Amino acid sequence: LGPILWDFDALTMTFWRLGRRIRWDGVGGAAPATPQLQLAAATSEAEHPLLEHLLQQHGDLFTEPQGLPPARAYDHRIHLQPGSAPVAV
Fold first, then answer.
1. Alpha-carbon distance 46 to 3, whole Å?
2. What are phi and psi for residue 60, nearest 5 degrees?
3. What pLDDT tens digit does each residue of the chain (89 aa) get?
4. Residue 33's domain spans which residues?
């Protein structure tokens, strides 16, 4: 996409695609349980189906987690010097 402008106060995301400036506006002030975005008023979903396609293609990313993540082959560890106390408890 190239450069992307995020404005977290205004809940907007702006970028260029195929020579046209695209601006996505967030809906509402508080973060909804599932992300809901709308195209700027000047455009319609029929003109720019990119957002709808992306939300459908990656819909599993927006579902609430069910339990703990699966076990991994490698666990992250922080190796401490022998006898040292944790930095923060």
1. 24
2. -65, -20
3. 689 999 998 889 999 988 889 888 887 644 444 444 444 444 444 555 777 788 788 888 878 888 888 888 888 887 888 888 877 77
4. 4-62
pTM across the whole model: 0.36
Q: Are 64 and 51 in contact (CB under 8 A)?
A: no
* Residues 16, 4 contacting (CB under 8 angstroms): no
21 bridge partner residues: 16
- Establish if 88 belongs to a structural domain: no
Q: Is residue 8 part of a domain?
A: yes
Count structural domains, the chain. 1
